[in-house]
């Protein structure tokens, strides 16, 4: 099988997907998107983009697998613990001033980040008056997120992350070991709305005091990054907070002056205009 994908075939495939399914991958960072497509072709033993297009257009189940390949699902609970520590130290006290706290976790993948935020809010006494909107393009990931069952061997890493993030209790109290999985307390997701949302094509759907979108826009080209940051700017309340991944920045965004840096190192910003 050829390990290349010429420009015409690449663009034609993405346009066909956009036309057929409404999923727009045309502004994903090209090197990453090409790698993912070629990886999928290798797994499925498909030799050409034309053949791949034919399969995707005629089999929705295969297309769902393709979306899973194109979306990023690598995550863990309290990933980058100092980010969560900064949220506790610099953001939580401000969130506490709102009678109802609305939080959008965009690109939530399989949900580890959602449960991490829920635990943090619970420990700070804010979970009962918070509504978390957890969205992702990947329906399979959302299904796993709803279940709240994660690999038991990962709990060692998650516990270390939790402690470094300033956890105030025993992490093991939040889950029950079940076979080879850890089932997280259902009370953590009572105020969570899991829903599909495509950052490339879908618009704003609420006003939020905090938006977290970490390690997602790094896979987009500059044009789509600008579009997504604009979406977040529209969706944030006055003086709302935005959290990005450690390799992401607002530096080149058209809204760079609309945000103040709360923690430059942890990429936490506040909307100021």
Automatic annotation (TrEMBL):
Supply the SMART domains for this chain. MeTrc
Q: Which InterPro entries does the entry link to?
A: Bact_Chemotaxis_MeTrfase, CheR_C, CheR_MeTrfase, CheR_N, SAM-dependent_MTases_sf
Q: Which residues form the CheR-type methyltransferase domain?
A: 1-273
Query: What Pfam families does this protein map onto?
Result: CheR, CheR_N
For this protein, the record's PANTHER family field holds: CHEMOTAXIS PROTEIN (PTHR24422:SF8), CHEMOTAXIS PROTEIN METHYLTRANSFERASE (PTHR24422)
Name the record gives this protein: Protein-glutamate O-methyltransferase CheR
Q: Which organism is it from?
A: Chryseolinea lacunae
